[in-house]
Amino acid sequence: MTIPLKDSSDPSAKAALARLEQIKGQLNLKSSAMSLQAPKDMTTERAAADFDIKKLEWLWAGGEDAYNLLNFSYNFIKNDPELVVQPPRNFLEMSRPEAREFAMGQIYRTTQLSKDKALNLTKQQIDSIVWATNIYSETFSMRFFVHASLFRNAVNMLGNKNQQDKWNTKIENLEVIGCFAMTELGHSSALRDIETTATYDIATDEFVLESPTVTSSKWWIGMAGQTATHTVAIAQTIIHGKNVGLNWFIVQLRSQTDGSLMPNVVAGDIGQKVGHLGLDNGWIQFHRNRIPRKNMLSRWVSLDRHGNFSPPPNPAVMYATLIPERLSLVLVTTQLISQAIVIATRYGVVRRQGAKNEQIMDYQSHYVKLVPAISFMYMVKTAQKDLDEQFSILTAGGNMDPATYLNYMGEMHAMAACFKGLTGWYSSEILEDCRRACGGHAYSSYNAIGSIIGDWGVMTTGGGDNVVLLQQAARHLLFRLEQKLKFNQYPKFSFKSPTQYINYAEEYLGNTKWNVSDVSQCLGNFSVVEGALCTILVKRLNSIQKNLESGMTHNDVLLESVRVAEMHCAVFLFSTNAAAYHKSTADPALDKGVLSIMNRLTVLWGLHILYKYSDQGFKEGFLSPEQIKDIEYIYFDYCKSLRSQVIGLTDGFGYPDFIIKAPIAKYDGDIYQAYFDSILQAPGSVDIPPYHEKYIKPLTNQLK
Amino acid sequence: MTIPLKDSSDPSAKAALARLEQIKGQLNLKSSAMSLQAPKDMTTERAAADFDIKKLEWLWAGGEDAYNLLNFSYNFIKNDPELVVQPPRNFLEMSRPEAREFAMGQIYRTTQLSKDKALNLTKQQIDSIVWATNIYSETFSMRFFVHASLFRNAVNMLGNKNQQDKWNTKIENLEVIGCFAMTELGHSSALRDIETTATYDIATDEFVLESPTVTSSKWWIGMAGQTATHTVAIAQTIIHGKNVGLNWFIVQLRSQTDGSLMPNVVAGDIGQKVGHLGLDNGWIQFHRNRIPRKNMLSRWVSLDRHGNFSPPPNPAVMYATLIPERLSLVLVTTQLISQAIVIATRYGVVRRQGAKNEQIMDYQSHYVKLVPAISFMYMVKTAQKDLDEQFSILTAGGNMDPATYLNYMGEMHAMAACFKGLTGWYSSEILEDCRRACGGHAYSSYNAIGSIIGDWGVMTTGGGDNVVLLQQAARHLLFRLEQKLKFNQYPKFSFKSPTQYINYAEEYLGNTKWNVSDVSQCLGNFSVVEGALCTILVKRLNSIQKNLESGMTHNDVLLESVRVAEMHCAVFLFSTNAAAYHKSTADPALDKGVLSIMNRLTVLWGLHILYKYSDQGFKEGFLSPEQIKDIEYIYFDYCKSLRSQVIGLTDGFGYPDFIIKAPIAKYDGDIYQAYFDSILQAPGSVDIPPYHEKYIKPLTNQLK
């Protein structure tokens, strides 16, 4: 295989550039009124921002220093041919083998940065370069994440001190490349049914790993296809002939020297996928594969030489790694979906179409989709920070008393589950809206939205099926409500828990009708909105609870439960941002312009939820038809009021053009020639096809 | 380029098969309880059909003879290596160059069938083989459609008798390969703004075609990338220095001998797209390109030697080809989306997961998505037939009086527009639901859903942006309502017009509340449902009309209008099927079991619309919270009652496994080994990757 992805100084790239110029010489690339207007529109839109865009970029990046560091990294990777595909080659044109090689090359390159003394990079800078490369390539991000996060977290959250000491250095310098083998061909959401076994052989003090059937094959395992030398694998643990439950084991898959499979391991590549072409997902089978006893991860369990096994204090701790995994997937929302929003937004302001040659962004069908999507990105960003802090309380919780720990754990698990569920689904909707907002041009791979959609596809089922996650969250909410209403119990938390409103359930249940005659009160008052939303939530939960008590099954109320869990998470985003961006409670150091726009985005988000879940309020008889019409009117109108801010707000994400990749979303708005260029760079774009002689000429030339 | 897609008797295919067997020898492919249960479940599900599946297949195919003919064709193409990719190669693994060559090879092969006397095929059989190949490959379908439908329809609907005579034979035998050049880089929905010009040069009796700017480049043109020798192109027509409007011109693009571009034409390939890899979409520029006057399509216009131009009787006739184009896109729904539904449904009944090892189809989140999707396919199939008949009245309408013709045209245009809009969007939703219903396994390209989604992507913006189309339909509805309410005018049609309910607008407006206390009345009575739906439609249209009269702009009510137009189309589907499958009005020859299941699907569709658009009813104060809750309950419950029929219903589409392609959707339910096989067949699936030496070994072997 030839890898046509080198820097532009190599001869084949030079030849490609020369060919491109020659084709362009034959074309009429003269500007039109339309193409001249586009950059002017972009400039006008940018100038319309009611805030200092730079300061919003700081907020998004996590502060001025973080912003500067990230921009240093963007500049660093931009011209590095091993981290970023250099023109005239196109990242969006890679085949599977090319993408896999390039992604591994990126990983390799990041490991070499510290060794190149001439570069003189700090550890912080190198981490930031990795982060910038994550943002550039979701495939790199996922591949790096499998090793540096999934594998490493398993060792550190589930392994004991000795195991951590043994493996952490090897993980750090990639002497081992690790993956995370949980899912099997026949088993994903139902971990209980995992078929792989690890049987303790007391004679040799080893575990024997076995894949007993076709459906027990580990499946989808990232990096297992071509790369990983080691894995953590979950398996049914058999000791003295008895199944003591699921445990995690470190297993070597491939030789660290020549990459060949270890004896008694068979593994391979999963082949073509809808996205993540550069990630080598794979499958694994173990056949009487022997590993030492000490390879069983033993922070929470233990097994001595005589086969005495102590189970974990709570089985849930064995899956605790899933919480940071889900929070990471939420983080991907802000780094990936935001890019699609930039593309649709920028194209939307420079594209003009219609009777009065309108900017397409001026159509209601456009801004009522994109403005809430932009708001969602900022809402998620704030909430994600909050949850990270809460999670750090949990991980520091080794010394908590067990009851408190499990209460925290329950809250975190439910919140991570519904956060991943809501962001997964709403992001899919946003991507579809972005795709449609770009019209036909989203169908070109070179405008990047297709690749984002492909990469995103895995998110609504991977890392926990969203229906299952949201149902788990709903059950947690129903449990909290039942505890409150029946036993007047609600735990004390040291932070603002996402379920806190349930502590006031009786009060909310007492609200028969929404006592707001002028819905525009929602514009100035977060507590009016929050009151309505929490009332609807509690009433809905209570109705579901009653249905269950009257004999309906959990399955009968599944769709209702899932919808309420979604809404719960949407309200959590609102509450978190309302606290962060209310004038009276916001960080006093926050720039006034930024505070003001974040406040407006929060108002919009509140209206968005009221609108989107108004059926929930109507079903409960809480909202009247008039109120529902008013909510719609005010929501649409508030979207319109933020229409002028869309460029400033999406500039706030701070992405350079090479990260976004799409020519129709160029920062300067000068899109048409750039788009044509990307098309002309496609291999063979103006050649007679190789099949002409065989299939075309015999037809078109038949009578001559 | 090597094309690795030959029949299984060639040596490289044999080697691949041998390699595959060797790998399988190392694997444990023993059955598990799960893999053994799957085919048993499939058999049980199939036996549960309340009707004769074969007879439903006849209905879907258009009768027993049509069914037999299509099955003959499926059997014919199945083993033809030029029409269907043969194992171990995989249709879903092709690169862009491979896919483009294969699709043109398919076209070539279909032209040779009549020449091969040994095959002894009738014209009808050959047409059916083309049709079966369409169903096998959406790329082939689209590529064939561009020439045989878009190009040919333009010549026949817009060209005069001489032009038809001149071109039809060449089109028939593919001596010319035609395409359809409408869209430009800068212009799609707004045809008025097309920039390409055709200037009449009276001195030479020629038109001079010109692409004056970058944005005037014809863009996305199917088959223009590599294949087409000719195109019809729309251009601003300049005669004696005056723009006389848009006209269509036949222009040669490439030499029929060697495929090289004609002088004064530059064209090329649009490169990588989200789907339709085998379709060579392209761009075209004309540079002082001279064509004879007689190449202007002149059925409705004329231009004499002196430059005297007669415009069309109505500008709309110049776009009449868009109506059959849109109806064709609706047809694609039934042939493509139905395949995704088969995949999700079959996988849903054989996959078991959960506390009680449930079939995942038994989850409410599953069947409430898939049962309505299945119903939708059958509803569309019936309505599409109806509209085809109506369209044939229109095309036969050369002798109609102009007022009648334009009334028909208005109805057809509005109906085709909103039908394409509704099916486009609802199908996208269905695909997303199908994808999610397959969990992670939809992420494997080999399970086909990804490819269907990729191909489908173009449908919500191509062939008319859905927002624009639905808005056009809404304006037509508002116009009819205004005519009725203000002037008591409604046209007489010789068929049941989709807008007929507007003729009873006053009556519907008089219904203040839905006078149905027991919503289960909807189960037995189509007219109860139709009455409610039409009331809601008329009330919503009337409210929008009032908002417009009170000063709101069309843009202010855009999203509302679009939603009402969607609902209008959904109700049209209901009415059409209610007439076809009501015991008192159905074709008496219809099999009783088939009639019964079609009746139940129609009941379900009515409930689906009531549920989905219930917000429209409560906004109008027509539906109460109690009624809304009852509708939801009865709708979910009716979905559940059809849950047992899903295999019979999807078998009704009659697709053989090689058409469906997805191993997780095998007819016999024995999915796991087949799925593993498809993975193992991926090139290099168990090889050490070529980049091991370069990127992996230096890391993993660093300390040795």
From TrEMBL, chains A, B:
Catalysed reaction, written as an equation: a 2,3-saturated acyl-CoA + O2 = a (2E)-enoyl-CoA + H2O2
Cofactor: FAD
Subcellular location: Peroxisome
Binding site for FAD: T183, G222
Domain called Acyl-CoA oxidase C-terminal: residue spans: 531-700
Record keywords, A-Z: FAD, Fatty acid metabolism, Flavoprotein, Lipid metabolism, Oxidoreductase, Peroxisome
Pathway: Lipid metabolism; peroxisomal fatty acid beta-oxidation
Keyword Lipid metabolism listed: yes
Domain called Acyl-CoA oxidase C-alpha1: residue spans: 319-478
Domain Acyl-CoA oxidase/dehydrogenase middle per the UniProt entry, residue ranges: 179-287
One term of GO molecular function: acyl-CoA oxidase activity
One GO-annotated biological process of the protein: fatty acid beta-oxidation using acyl-CoA oxidase
Cellular component per GO, a single term: peroxisome
InterPro entries hit by this protein: ACOX_C_alpha1 (IPR055060), Acyl-CoA_ox_N (IPR029320), Acyl-CoA_Oxase/DH_mid-dom (IPR006091), Acyl-CoA_Oxase/DH_mid-dom_sf (IPR046373), Acyl-CoA_oxidase (IPR012258), Acyl-CoA_oxidase_C (IPR002655), AcylCo_DH-like_C (IPR036250), AcylCoA_DH/ox_N_sf (IPR037069)
Acyl-coenzyme A oxidase N-terminal domain: residues covered: 52-177
Family in the record: Belongs to the acyl-CoA oxidase family.
Protein name, entry field: Acyl-coenzyme A oxidase
Organism of derivation: Phycomyces blakesleeanus (strain ATCC 8743b / DSM 1359 / FGSC 10004 / NBRC 33097 / NRRL 1555)
